[in-house]
Design a protein that fits this description.
- This protein has 12 helices and no strands.
- By secondary structure, it is mostly helical.
- Helix 4 runs parallel beside helix 9 and helix 5 packs parallel to helix 10.
- It is globular.
- The mean pLDDT is 83.
């Protein structure tokens, strides 16, 4: 019965985090528009960061509670799931065309972040130099986002008049969305830990499987939408951006919150981090040269994810 309640609360936590994130993004964008912030800035900064809030809040709360295995496992596991599960499904379902001109810098930043994170954790904790380099990668990504968005913005875009009720409504939604994310994240961390105890496994295993996939649901929804609409650019762009933020922002913040160098489990150094770097390379390197993904790539990534889960569990 205890296990059933924990699983039920875990499912509720996922719903709160995903829906809360959706409400938060929409409200934040509406408030920014009301404040006359250009749409291209909103899309390049607020939306791109806000879509990774589930992973960020879950990992930060876990780090604050001293549950570092869950903090690291969620952030790294989300990238692995995004790439070898969600992106792989998109590769098998549709032709993904990836313009080198549009995505090359982001792809290089993502591969760089995955390797830097792995190397900087070999000592058993996230090294200070690693956090610094990852922070630089995050800044470069955001600058590139803004410059790219500015270049492609609609010059004829006009700000619409906004009334007071509209602003108040979105401020309320913003607060509710944030509250849902925080409350849901707390539920996820607590019940994820409890499920791990009941099953007699480490928190890391729950983090890289259930928690990682749960917090990656926004990317999954976006990818399914892209598949339905046959918009491959939406899928690849969303996943690359989310992965860069997961690797370059979340763990350095977790390290800061914990007040010391973030400890990284030996199993994460041997399995999770190299797996993340490997699937990232397999997904992106062929696309850099061919400027498109193949179905074979997708099936290879899905097979690797299945193998990874078997090894982890």
């Amino acid at each position: 019965m205890h296990m059933f309640i924990c699983c039920l609360l875990f499912a509720v936590s996922i719903a709160l985090v995903v829906k809360g994130g959706d409400i938060f993004v929409d409200a934040a964008s509406a408030i920014a528009k009301a404040l006359k912030i250009p749409a291209f800035i909103i899309g390049a900064t607020i939306v791109s960061v806000a879509t990774t809030l589930p992973e960020m809040i879950v990992s930060v709360l876990a780090a604050a509670e001293g549950k570092t295995e869950m903090a690291v496992g969620n952030a790294v596991g989300s990238v692995t799931a995004n790439t070898s599960l969600i992106l792989a499904v998109a590769m098998t379902a549709m032709t993904i065309v990836c313009s080198r001109k549009t995505h090359l810098k982001q792809m290089l930043l993502l591969m760089g972040a995955s390797v830097i994170l792995w190397l900087s954790c070999l000592s058993g904790s996230l090294a200070i130099w690693g956090s610094a380099v990852l922070a630089v990668i995050f800044i470069l990504f955001m600058v590139q986002n803004v410059l790219s968005a500015k270049k492609n913005k609609d010059n004829d875009e006009k700000a619409e008049p906004v009334d007071r009720k509209y602003i108040i409504k979105n401020i309320v939604l913003f607060i509710l969305g944030a509250a849902a994310i925080v409350f849901g994240s707390n539920l996820m961390v607590d019940n994820g830990s409890e499920i791990a105890k009941i099953l007699g496994v480490s928190e890391r295993i729950i983090a890289v499987t259930l928690v990682a996939v749960g917090t990656s649901l926004p990317e999954l929804v976006t990818t399914i939408t892209a598949i339905v609409k046959k918009e491959s650019g939406l899928s690849i762009g969303n996943i690359i951006g989310a992965n860069i933020i997961d690797l370059s922002l979340i763990l350095p913040i977790c390290s800061l919150v914990s007040g010391k160098q973030l400890p990284v489990a030996e199993s994460s150094i041997r399995i999770d981090l190299p797996a993340c770097a490997l699937v990232t390379a397999i997904a992106l390197i062929p696309m850099i040269f061919r400027q498109k993904a193949s179905k074979i790539q997708g099936f290879i990534l899905l097979a690797l994810y299945a193998a990874y889960l078997v090894i982890v569990i």
